[in-house]
Amino acid sequence: MNNSNKSIFERFSDWATKFTGSPSAFIGATLIVVIWGVTGPVFNYSETWQLVINTGTTIITFLMVFLIQKSQNKDSKAIQIKLNELIAANEKASNRIVDIEDLTEKDLDQLHCYYEKLADFAEKGEDIHTSHSIDAAKRNQSYKQEYFQKRHEEWLQKQQEKKESI
C-alpha cells in the first residue's frame, strides 16, 4: 500500500510500533531508568522523585496499550486475509472456515472440537499430508488403511518372490 494513502495516525502508529520494538528504544528506556535510579540520592529518594518515574511509566504504559492493540488488530487482519487466501486457493480445504473469526466463542469451541476429532482420525493414518473434512476423514481413513494394506501385501509378495528367485 502506498504510504500517501495512509492517515497520519496510521503512519505514526507504524513508526511508533517499529521504534518501540527497536534496540534503540530499549536502550533509551534502560538509560532513563538508570539515570532516575542514580539521581535518587541527589533528591533524597523523595516522593517527588518516585512520582516522576511512576507517572512517566504509567502514561507510557497507558499509551502503549492502545498502540499495541492497533498493531495487533492490523497484524491479525492481515494474517486472517492471508489464511483466507490459502483456504480459498486450496481445493481440499473447506471454504466454510473462511472468516470464522466473527463467530462466537461457543461456535469457535465447537469448531475446535471438530478439528480435534479430525486430528484423532489423522493420527490413525500414515500420511500426514492428507487434508479433508470429518465426513471425508471417516471414509478416507478406511480407504487409506485398505490401500496401505494392499500395497504392503504387494510389497511383501515382491520381497518373497525376490528371495525365491535367489
Individual helix count: 5
Q: H/E order of the elements?
A: HHHHH
The total count of strands amounts to 0
The CA-CA distance between the termini, in Å, is 69 Å
The mean pLDDT is: 84
**What would the principal axes of the Cα set say about the shape?**
elongated
Strand content: under 5%
Radius of gyration: 29 Å
| Uncertain ranges | none
Helix content: over 70%
SSE-based structural type = mainly alpha
Major sheet details: none
Description:
This protein has 166 residues and is mostly helical. The protein contains 5 helices and no strands. It has helices spanning 8-20, 23-38, 47-89, 105-124, 134-165. The chain is elongated and about 95 Å long. The mean pLDDT is 84.
Task: Pick out its properties.
single chain; 166 residues; 75% helix; mainly alpha; elongated
Question: How is the secondary structure organized here?
Answer:
Layout (H helix, E strand, L loop, with lengths): L7 H13 L2 H16 L8 H43 L15 H20 L9 H32 L1
Quick structural overview:
This protein has 166 residues and is mainly α. The chain has helices at residues 8-20, 23-38, 47-89, 105-124, 134-165.
